[in-house]
Amino acid sequence: MRAAVLRGGTVQARVIDDPVPGPGQLLVRSLACGICASDIHFMDHLEAGADDDSGMSTYDRDVDIVMGHEYCAEVVDHGPGTERRIPIGTRVSSLPVLSTGTGRRIIGQNPESPGGFGEYLLLDESLTRVAASELPSEIVCIADAISVGWSAASRAQLTTKEVPLVIGCGAIALSVIAQLRRLGVGPIIAVDFVASRRGTALAMGADVVIDPAEISPYQAWRDVAHGSPESTKEMIAMAGLPGCVVFECVGVPGVLDSIIRGCERGTRIFSMGGPPEGDHLSTLIAKRKGLNIQFGGGPSLQHWDEAFEAVCSGSLDVTPMLGRTVGLDGVAAALDASRDADGPVRIVVVP
User: Fold this and answer.
1) Using an 8 Å Cβ cutoff, are 249 and 172 in contact?
2) Contact at 8 Å (CB) between 347 and 48?
3) In sequence order, what E strands does the chain have?
4) Going by CATH, does the domain composed of 2-142+318-349 fall within 3.40.30.10?
5) In the Cβ-directed half-sphere of 39, how many Cα atoms lie within 13 Å?
6) What angle do CA 252, 200, 158 make, to 5 degrees?
7) pTM of the prediction?
8) Taking every annotated instance into account, which residue ranges of this chain make up the domain Alcohol dehydrogenase-like N-terminal (predicted)?
9) Are 303 and 150 in contact (CB under 8 A)?
10) What class has domain 145-295?
11) 3-state secondary structure 1-44
């Protein structure tokens, strides 16, 4: 098959062997696959794979790896021991995890589990879901990105006395915003330096967008959550000030620490960014403020299924997130373009 292959730190389109389905696996043809920031983190930070003692995500510079974990695909063949419940030719997707004879692997982040930047890949039949949708595959494949923020927003369980602050307006942040809107939470405040991303945040459901170059996000949150001095006095007298829930969706060193330093006392923080090179946190300040920090965790299967259904049914419109499409020969350049904060939220590879 042809694939955009990562080896030695670079990506090049060439011909490699077709994957062969093992027990419980499906062979599928990739129809569309989104480029995610975690693809870039994976290829740029060899140490992150070396530190993963689970073996699920492994980067070896001397071995071919086909990235891509946000895919919509078509069933081509059934491996041994499968139930064959999904007919050949059916459009599908799945949580990007593959069960192999040596353990579970993240699809697109391990030599044993090639991803959607190639013509073919393998899926675990038990995790595969049918894409019951008339929408294009380029839209359906965005569901995996949606599931991450969807899960974080759902797990946060915001109350009517809390106001969310979303830092960064990339794909994960936009999915947080979309699910918060569906849950009836608001007002939703979103922060990003890039005007186009702030515009997309509004399209996905944000109520207020902030340019941090113009005003502190935390002052902006206070202005929205507390309102006028008169209303603040009334809130204090009746039920206390609103609580702050911050969703950190940037993944750049220093951002989480700046949130710790700038946020309100008692803030709940959901850190979805996680810079692969690590970070320094002012833990004493966090202690004094009584902050609660939840790191990542990824979507549960239930939340993945919910997000997939919402995208496939069209009840959640993700078209504002979709940028251009590229073929396999354009993947390397598209990865570079995805590093640009001014670039589209999602570039989609169509093998």
Assistant:
1) yes
2) no
3) 2-7, 10-15, 25-34, 70-78, 91-94, 97-100, 103-106, 120-124, 128-130, 162-167, 189-191, 208-210, 243-248, 268-271, 292-295, 322-326, 346-349
4) no
5) 35
6) 70
7) 0.91
8) 22-126
9) yes
10) alpha beta
11) CEEEEEECCEEEEEECCCCCCCCCEEEEEEEEEECCHHHHHHHH
pLDDT in tens, the chain (351 residues): 999 999 988 999 999 999 999 999 999 999 999 999 889 988 887 665 556 667 788 888 899 999 999 999 999 999 999 999 999 999 999 999 999 888 999 999 999 999 999 999 999 999 999 999 999 999 999 999 999 999 999 999 999 999 999 999 999 999 999 999 999 998 999 999 999 999 999 999 999 999 999 999 999 999 999 885 444 444 444 456 789 999 999 989 999 999 999 999 999 999 998 787 888 999 999 999 999 999 987 899 999 999 999 999 999 999 999 999 999 999 999 999 998 878 789 999 999
Q: Give the span between the Cα atoms of 250 and 18, in whole angstroms.
A: 36
Cα–Cα distance for residue pair 130/75, rounded to 1 Å: 10
Which amino acid, 137? S
Give the span between the Cα atoms of 146 and 276, in whole angstroms.
Answer: 21
Alpha helices in 107-194 (DSSP H): 137-140, 143-156, 171-182
Tokens 């003692």 sit on residue: 53
Domain ranges of the chain: 2-142+318-349, 145-295
Instruction: Tell me if 302 sits within 8 A of 279, measured CB to CB.
Output: no
Amino acid at 241: L
Count of residues in the chain:
351
